[in-house]
Amino acid sequence: MVALAVVLAVLSGFIVRLVDIQIVNADDHIADSMQVALGASRTLYGTRGEIVDETGQTLAGSILLYDGVLDPKNAGPITRADEDGTRKVVSWPAVAAEIGAVTGQTGAEVEKIVADALAENPDSQFAYLKRGLTTEQYRALVDIGAPFLTFDSHPARTYPDGAVAGNLVGFMSVDSEPLAGIEQSANDCLQASNGSLTFQKGKDGVVIPGTEVETPAVNGGTLQLTINRDLQWYLQQLIGEQVQDMGAKRGTITVVEVETGKVRAAAEYPSVDPNDPAAAPTEDRRSHIFTDTFEPGSTFKALTGATVLDAGGQDLSSTVVASSTETFPNGARVRDAFQHEPYLYTLAGVLIDSSNAGISKFSERVSPQTRFDYLQKFGIGSGSAVGFQGEEQGLLYPVAQWDNQQLYNTSFGQGVTTTVPELVGAYDAIANDGTRMPLSIVESCTKADGTVVTPDLPEPVQVISAQTSAEMREILENVAMQASYAKQVEVPGYRIATKTGTGEKSDGSGGYKAGVYFTTMIGFAPADDPKYLVAVTLDEPTTVTSSSANAPAFQKAMTQVLKTYRVMPATTAPTLLPKFG
Fold first, then answer.
1. 96: domain range?
2. PANTHER family given for it (predicted)?
C-alpha cells in the first residue's frame, strides 16, 4: 500500500506537470522551443507596389531575387542518378564547381565559404552562398540537386523602361530603401509589410512537419501616375537631341492637360536610369523640373498683360508709346533687346515684339501691389500642389522690398524667380478661362485590399475673368503667328499660342553672368479651345543663346502631344491683331 501510494503520488506529479507544460503554458513553451538551436525562421517578403502610367503600363515594379544558403555541416558529396538510372556519388569539389559555374564563383570559392563557416562553428548550418540570384540562376542551382543548398526569395525593384521618367520615379537603395522621387514621396502607398515563417529543423536540417508558424506579408499598393509613358519616352529623346544641338547644360519639356492640371509628361535631359542610378552624376539624379528655380524673363509679360486687362481697365485696343530705351520718373531705365524708334504699341504688339519698355509702361496702369497680388494668385512663389520630393518655390519679394528698378523689371520677369510648375500653372489660368487648376502627377493609389485613394488637391483658383482669358489667348496666338520665330513653331492645321522668355542667370554676387541665359518657350493649343500646355526650357544654350533655341523642340513636342491625344484640327480662322495703334 505504501509503495502504491508513492507510485500514485509520483504519477500525479507527472500529470500535473504535463498539464502545465502542454495546456496551461503551452504557448510560452512553444515560443521558447522556437529559439533553441534547431529552431529557425524566414522573412516572408511583401511585394512593393507598382508605379504605372496613366494607361497602366509599368514604370516601376518588383521581381523575385534569391539568396542562396548553404548548410556547411551537411555540405559534401551528393548521390545522383545517371541517364541510365545508375546512381553514382559526385564528390564535394565537383559539386562545388557546378554550383560556382552558375553563381559566377570558382569551385574553390564555394568550398572556402563552407570551410570558413565550419572553422568558426563546427556545427554551423547557415552560410550565404550568394545573394541576389536571378530566377534563371535559382532554377539552375535547384537542378544540381544538392540537399544542403536552400534559397530565400525576396522582391527587388526593377524599372523595365530604364531612364523613361527616371527623374520622376526615383530609385531605391541596395537595401530597398526609397532614396528619391516618387519612390520616396509615395512610399506610404508603395511600401509592403513583411511577414515571417518560423519552424523547427531536425539534426539533418530538414524542417519538422507541423512546426511552421506563419505571419503573412502584406503587399504594397499600386500607384498610378498621370504621366503617359509613350509620350514621356518620345519627349525625353526630343529634349536630349535639343540639348545637344544647342550645346546646353540641360533641358526639360513639361506637358499639362489644361482642364485638369494633370501632368502628362515631365521629360528631362540628362536623365537617370533607376536600375543603375550610380551611373549618373549626383546632379542628374533628381528632377530639375521641380527642384530648380530661374528668372522667367519675358514669359512674365503675359502675366502682366493679363493683370492690366483684368484690373487696369485696358483692352485689346489700348496702347502705349515706347522707345527701345525708356527712363522712368523714379530713375529706372529699361531697354529692349533691339533698337527702335518710339512705337505706338498695342498690348499684342508689346508681346509680339517682346518689348521690355512697352510692358513696363503698361504695368503702370495698375499699382505695384495689384501686380504683386495677381502674381500670387497666378501661383508665383508658392510651389505647386504636386508636392514632389525636394520641390522648390519661386522667390517673389513683397512690394515694400522692390527698389526703383524692380518696380518695372518684375513686369518682364527680372528680379523674381519661379519654377516650371509655377509657370505652367500660371499659363494654365490664362488658357483655362482664368481658372488655375492645381497640378497633379499622381492619379491614385490602389491599396492591396482594393481601396482606391486619390490625392487631396486644393481647390482651383479663379485668377482672371473668362473675358480676360479669351483676350490673352488671342494675344498669345498672335505672338505665335507674328513673332520672328513664327514659322518655327507652326503646327499645320492647328491654332497655337506661345510666349518665350530669356532669363539672365545670377553670378552669385548680385549681378548677372555675361552672355549666359535660361531660355523658355511655353504655349498651348488649340488657341481657341486650349487642351494641352507645353513648356520647353534650356539651361545655358550656347549654339543659339536666345529663346529661339527652344522653338524646334516646342514645335515637335506640341505636334506629338496633339497626335497622342487625338486633338482635332482647327475649324475656324484666327483673328489677326495689330501690333501698333
1. 72-147
2. PEPTIDOGLYCAN D,D-TRANSPEPTIDASE (PTHR30627), PEPTIDOGLYCAN D,D-TRANSPEPTIDASE FTSI (PTHR30627:SF1)
Diameter of the chain measured on Cα atoms:
134
User: Which is nearest to 308 in space by CA: 320, 297, 296?
Assistant: 320
Calpha distance 155→159 (Å, rounded): 13
Same domain, yes or no, for 97 and 15?
no
Contacts of 410 (CB under 8 A, 6+ apart): 300, 371, 375, 402, 416
Give yes or no for a contact between 337 and 504, defined as CB atoms under 8 angstroms apart: no
CA distances from 218 to 67, 148, 151, 466 (A): 21, 30, 21, 49
Q: Write down which residue in 119, 147, 175 finishes a domain.
A: 147
**Cα separation of the two ends of the chain:** 131
Residue with cell 522556437: 34
How far apart (Å, rounded) are the C-alpha atoms in residues 409 and 402?
A: 10
- Do 350 and 418 reside in the same domain of the chain? yes
Q: Same structural domain for residues 319 and 397?
A: yes
pLDDT tens for each residue of 517-535: 999 999 999 999 999 999 9
CA dihedral 241, 294, 265, 427 (to 10 degrees): -120
How much of the chain is in helix, strand and coil states, percent to nearest 5?
35, 25, 40
3-state SS assignment for residue 189: helix
C-alpha to C-alpha distance for 13 and 432, rounded to whole angstroms: 87
DSSP of 284-329, one letter per residue?
A: GSS-HHHH--B--GGGGHHHHHHHHHHHS---TT-EEEE-SEEE-T
Specify if 57 maps to a domain: no
How far apart are the C-alpha atoms of 497 and 168, rounded to whole Å? 28
The CATH number of residue 391's host domain is 3.40.710.10
Residues 263 and 134 in one domain: no
Place of cell 523595365: 160
Let me know the angle formed at the C-alpha of 98 by 93 and 100, rounded to the nearest 5 degrees: 90
Predicted confidence (pLDDT) per residue in 474-530, tens digit: 999 999 999 999 999 999 999 999 999 999 998 888 788 898 999 999 999 999 999
Number of CB atoms found within 10 A of residue 356's CB:
26
Instruction: Classify 226 as helix, strand or coil.
Output: coil
From CA 255, how far away is CA 266, in angstroms rounded?
A: 7
Contact 255, 231 (CB under 8 A): yes
- Would the pTM of this model clear 0.90, i.e. be above it? no
Query: What is the tally of structural domains in the chain?
Result: 3
Alpha-carbon distance 166 to 281, whole Å?
Answer: 14
Q: Are residues 122 and 254 in the same domain?
A: no
Q: Are residues 254 and 132 in the same domain?
A: no
In a domain, 161, yes or no: no
Kindly report, residue by residue over 218-246, the tens digit of the pLDDT.
899 999 999 999 999 999 999 999 999 99
Let me know if residue 60 belongs to a domain: no
Helix (H, G, I), strand (E, B) or coil at 440: strand
Contact call for residues 51 and 190 (beta carbons, < 8 A) = yes
